[in-house]
Amino acid sequence: MMLLSHRRVAHALSGALSALLLISLTACGGSGYDRGDGTPTMRVIIAESANTALGNIPIDAGLAQHHGIALERVVAPSGGSSNQVSALIAGDVQLAVSGTNAAIDAISRGADLKIIAALGPLANALTMARPVADRLGITEATPVEDQLRALRGLRVVAPTPGSAGNAVLVRLLRDAGIDSAQDLQLVPVQDNSAITGGLVQGTYDASFAAIGPGEAAAADGSAVVLSSVPAGDFPQLDDFVGVVVYTTAAFAEDNPDLVDAVRQTFLDGGRLATDDPDAAAAALKSGSLAGMSDDAFTRAWTQIQPSATTVGPFTEQNWNKFLELFGDNPDNDYRDLGYASVVAQAADQN
């Protein structure tokens, strides 16, 4: 598969933020480009969704300029994190933001990628159509494990296989004694409007999706949001980083100063969300999440904003948590991977 090949982004000539580097970036598309004003610019492929809100804040708020760089957003199409991985490996972009599992799975299969920064937990929530919840006697106060067990026999919207959201849902179901392949029907759906409409119309019984579509269905009483990952309703996911920034190993090795500038930019986004949440929310609402209704945005931001304190380096503790949750995944072998295999050396710091 081309997605899992060993193609690398072309090397830049230097890692230093110097005049020579800025000139070389113009001529080397795989390593970024000069906007014409001497600013090294890197393309970032990222979805415009609640799940990547903490990654979109620094782009929406223009924070990269404080570190002498520019970030240009390339909106990831629907279909899951594989789009970000393939675009990065193909050299179409220099940076990617997506679910952690997609990045590490690609690394485990031979892709030469490195994580630069951690962007907090998944912003996923479990939502159930109101008639189904009423029939089963499920409410927001129902213990989370019982909420999950109530999904038996239901048609549940889920993230696409291979994504962090899918892997997390399968793990949560397994913890609750549910076989995701046998005990319910998981339906991969990426279109937020289709998720909302499906819950409202009864096409789907429940969803485990990025915050937004479930809240939209709940706004008119058609659904009920039961539990949320960023709200801390799933304690087994504590310390699990669900979204990361990553690049190719070649880019990270050849451009350590740029990697550090990128990392600091994303950390600034976390600080803005923590220290001035109104400003961060305004940047998102006028930028990447402009299409989200005010009610859905408020519901989403209320859950996401507290997790901004977790934006930072992808630590060895985060790596060990990933192994604890997914180390026994039969579809991917992480035995030959170590912390140094997945994290860029330039980003392995506080």
Question: Could you explain the architecture of this structure?
Answer:
40% of the residues lie in helices and 16% in strands. The chain is of the alpha/beta class. The protein folds into 2 domains: 2-122 and 239-347, 3-Layer(aba) Sandwich (D-Maltodextrin-Binding Protein, domain 2); 124-228, D-Maltodextrin-Binding Protein, domain 2. β2, α2 and β3 (70-75) form a beta-alpha-beta unit.
Could you say what the CATH architecture of the largest domain is?
A: 3-Layer(aba) Sandwich
Q: For the record, what is the CATH homologous superfamily label of the largest domain?
A: Periplasmic binding protein-like II
Tally the helices: 15
**Helix residue percentage:** 25-40%
**Count of strand segments:** 11
Helix/strand order, N-terminal first:
HEEHEHEHEEHHEHEHEHEEHHHHHH
Please indicate the percent range of residues in DSSP E strands (runs of 2 or more): 15-25%
Structural class: alpha/beta
What distance separates the N and C termini?
36 Å
Radius of gyration from the alpha-carbon trace, in angstroms: 20 Å
User: Poorly predicted ranges (pLDDT <50, ≥5 residues)?
Assistant: 1-29
Question: What form results from the Cα inertia axes?
Answer: globular
Averaged pLDDT:
86
Q: How do the strands and helices of this protein lay out in sequence?
A:
Elements: H1 19-27, E1 33-34, E2 40-46, H2 53-60, E3 70-75, H3 82-90, E4 95-99, H4 100-108, E5 113-118, E6 124-129, H5 130-136, H6 144-149, E7 155-158, H7 164-175, E8 185-188, H8 192-201, E9 206-210, H9 213-219, E10 223-228, E11 243-248, H10 249-254, H11 256-275, H12 277-286, H13 294-304, H14 316-326, H15 339-342
Parallel strand pairs: 2-3, 2-4, 7-8, 7-9
Antiparallel strand pairs: 1-2, 4-11, 5-11, 6-9, 6-10
